[in-house]
Design the sequence.
């Protein structure tokens, strides 16, 4: 299910409160604490009490800071416990003295079994019970304070606060984002800037403004976290891309793989200028004929690599675009793509099924999703390879060997037709499962992200079409989950 944001209205009593709650399977619940509307006399928020002067109408100030929570009032609660004990002793002494003076020393009172106790004894018992109850309440309060103090430092370390000034309403909002295990809390408070409580804000206005501040804070959290998830999966990717982008070509020759349409490609060796490390790459020069026909669009190689990273995959070898004077095999080209060449690779259909069958469903699903997005109808057995991975690591890559994808230069042809319910090269039928990681990352592919990341090689209309296909892919899997259940469709 798509993560959703829901605005929950204020409670029946107390200050205006709004809560923003995010629900989703991939993350823990996002609870929203109270979004308080603090009156003109000020109040306590997260941190110190503030009552800023009204800003000018031409200025909007904004500042961010980290803060820690302090609990100076805890000593008062402990003093409260002391006062309860003192009152208990005083009450006990007073009532004992009253009982002693009201009964003559020479008189002996004997309670007869079955008769009700004396009024003095009943009152004394009620006093003791009341004292015990109050002590229990004080003990529970002190225990909760101790727990709060022990967790304050850890909570404050993951807390971020932002104050925003709103000149048009003569008030400020403070939003606080706190992270705990499995929970992200967003809290917003509204404070009047004018001391007389003016500014034209009623209670409902305060709730609406607090909700807007919380919504903006949630958007910032989303953008920051999504950006971190879209970063390359490791240093090895950055190192390889740096060599591909800036490495010196020390040797080159024509590729052994001949294109069906006689498009040129070259196997080159590049040397890192800083470390002298050498890697091999496949160079595809940009050609006017290849661009016009759509069958040799070298920029699509780079787009496929970038999109593969945006989706949380690692199935396409590192690829960069280079411009300038590129001399290979006695020829000079102005621009082209360099893709990391995996030595020792072989076609995947020649590998024993049990070697890679554990990840077969997710891998073929990821392949079809990528091909649908880039509109690549040229996915045959020759484009599925198996060999040493360029960035082996624990988890998804338990060994250095893995399946990967090559040759995406036929992407983004207008006449292509690629669907999720089409057959694939391995004849396993329509795509019916999706990786949980890919399913989540598809939701991060907004039009803005696609334009920022892929705009160097794609036109605005192509980005719009890519975004439309992404929405169709999400709708397809959302429908499968609705009819068949999450566990039947989403795989780890």
Sequence:
């Amino acid at each position: 299910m798509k993560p959703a944001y829901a605005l929950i209205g204020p409670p029946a009593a107390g200050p205006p409160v709004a809560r923003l709650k995010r629900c989703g399977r991939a993350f823990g619940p996002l609870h929203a604490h109270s979004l308080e509307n603090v009156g003109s006399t000020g109040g306590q928020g997260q941190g110190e009490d503030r009552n800023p002067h009204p800003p000018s109408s031409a200025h909007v100030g904004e500042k961010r800071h980290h803060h820690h929570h302090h609990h100076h009032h805890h000593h008062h609660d402990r003093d409260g416990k002391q006062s309860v004990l003192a009152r208990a002793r005083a009450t006990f002494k007073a009532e004992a003295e009253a009982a002693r003076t009201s009964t003559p020393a020479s008189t002996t009172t004997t309670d007869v079994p079955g008769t009700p106790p004396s009024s003095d004894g009943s009152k004394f018992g009620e006093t003791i019970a009341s004292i015990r109850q109050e002590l229990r309440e004080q003990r529970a309060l002190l225990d909760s304070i101790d727990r709060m103090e022990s967790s304050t430092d850890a909570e404050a370390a993951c807390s971020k606060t932002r104050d925003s000034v709103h000149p048009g309403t003569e008030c400020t909002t403070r939003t606080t984002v706190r992270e705990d295990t499995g929970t992200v809390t967003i809290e917003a408070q509204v404070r009047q800037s004018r001391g007389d409580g003016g500014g034209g804000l009623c209670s409902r206005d305060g709730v609406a403004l607090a909700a807007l501040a919380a919504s903006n804070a949630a958007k910032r959290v989303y953008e920051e976290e999504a950006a971190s998830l879209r970063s390359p999966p490791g240093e090895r990717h950055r190192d390889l891309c740096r060599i591909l982008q800036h490495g010196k070509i020390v040797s080159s020759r024509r590729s052994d793989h001949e294109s069906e349409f006689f498009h040129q490609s070259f196997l080159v060796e590049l040397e890192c200028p800083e470390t002298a490390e050498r890697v091999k790459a496949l160079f595809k020069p940009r050609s006017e004929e290849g661009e016009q026909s759509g069958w040799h669009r070298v920029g699509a190689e780079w787009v496929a690599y970038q999109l593969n990273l945006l989706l949380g995959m690692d199935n396409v070898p590192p690829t960069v675009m280079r411009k300038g004077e590129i001399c290979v095999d006695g020829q000079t080209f102005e621009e082209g793509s360099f893709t990391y060449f995996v030595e020792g690779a072989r076609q995947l259909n020649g590998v024993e099924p049990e070697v890679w069958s554990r990840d077969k469903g997710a891998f073929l699903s990821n392949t079809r999703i990528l091909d649908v997005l880039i509109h690549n109808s040229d996915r045959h057995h020759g484009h599925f390879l198996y060999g040493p991975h360029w960035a082996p690591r624990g988890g998804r890559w338990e060994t250095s060997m893995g399946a990967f994808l090559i040759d995406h230069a036929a992407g983004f042809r207008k006449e292509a037709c690629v669907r999720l319910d089409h057959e694939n090269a391995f004849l396993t039928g329509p795509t019916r499962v999706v990786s949980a990681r890919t399913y989540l990352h598809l939701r991060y592919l907004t039009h803005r992200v696609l334009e920022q990341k892929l705009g160097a090689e794609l036109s605005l209309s192509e980005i719009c079409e890519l975004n439309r296909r992404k929405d169709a892919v999400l709708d397809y899997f959302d429908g499968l989950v609705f009819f068949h259940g999450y566990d039947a469709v989403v795989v780890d």
Observations:
- The CA atoms of residues 36 and 189 lie 4 Å apart.
- The chain has a mean pLDDT of 76.
- The first strand starts at residue 4 and ends at 8.
- Residues 119-157 form the longest helix (39 residues).
